[in-house]
Amino acid sequence: MEPMNLADIYGTPLLEWSKIEERLGQGLTQAPDAGGPNRHTCWLATINPDGSPHVTGIGALWAESTFWFETGRNTRKGRNIARDPRCTLSVATQEFDLVVEGRADLITDPTTVAAMAARWAAGGWPATVDETGSALTAEYSAPSAGRPPWFVYRITPKSATALLTVEPGGATRWRF
User: Fold this and answer.
1) What DSSP letter does each residue of 50-91 carry, written as one string?
2) Structural domain of residue 56, as residue ranges?
3) Longest dimension (CA), the chain
4) What's the predicted TM-score (pTM) here?
5) Do the beta carbons of residue 103 and residue 87 sit within 8 Å?
6) Domain of 8: which CATH number?
């Protein structure tokens, strides 16, 4: 991992990736007034066929040192990722704003899908593994996820940039 201090002209310290991961490990609730500013919405940017960006709010989960999300294969983000897996995920926490650039990979391994379903269920979304073992189902999901089955995606980060929003401030980019 290669860090770069983006705010050294202001004399702010290099941020520690371990502190960013520690905070992400505490969870990113989407309930109003439960984090924020005001709440934690993750924004996923994918690339449309014409090269223009597509940005949509998603409920992402931090686990095993990366972000995970789910969506239907026929959603715009699902189709975009199938064609070009490059993506960016961003989120604002109380302590920092974070942008992670990387690639989203479809995960169909039944053991991993079941583990992620259990994580989402523990967080309040009653996801279960569908009959194929490679996707999720539940009574509901976000409208932008489309109809079930929902497929699990893991973002493999290539770089991340964090801007500290509390004292002492600072901004750091990491290349993985």
Assistant:
1) TS-EEEEEE--EEETTEEEEEE-TTSHHHHHHHH--EEEEEE
2) 2-175
3) 55
4) 0.91
5) yes
6) 2.30.110.10
CA 120 to CA 60: how far, in whole Å? 10
Model pLDDT for residues 64-94, shown as the tens digit of each residue: 999 999 999 999 999 999 999 999 999 998 8
Instruction: Give the Cα separation of 78 and 72 in Å (integer).
Output: 6
Report the domain count for the chain.
Answer: 1
86 strand-pairing partners: 103
Angle subtended at Cα 66 by Cα 160 and Cα 72, rounded to the nearest 5 degrees: 110
Other CB atoms within a 10 A radius of the CB of residue 47 amount to 17
Measure the CA–CA gap between 52 and 33, rounded to whole angstroms: 33
Tokens encoding 40: 């934690």
Cα–Cα distance for residue pair 70/173, rounded to 1 Å:
26
